[in-house]
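WARN no homologs supplied; continuing
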Amino acid sequence: CFGVDRCMFGSDWPVCTLAKADYKRVFDLLQHLLSSMTVEDKKKIFRENAAKFYKLDLN
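OK structure emitted
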């Protein structure tokens, strides 16, 4: 099973518009679904894991 260290957010933009959703609605839904997670885990999903995987310097 995958933990937060192996997950990252992807907006699926613009495909989500086919479901009559916009970026804000998709993001708000994900925030709601992840509301029980710690701030540290959400940072991994929304930022840190992608930066590590794609070797991005976010400083």
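The mean pLDDT is 89.
OK
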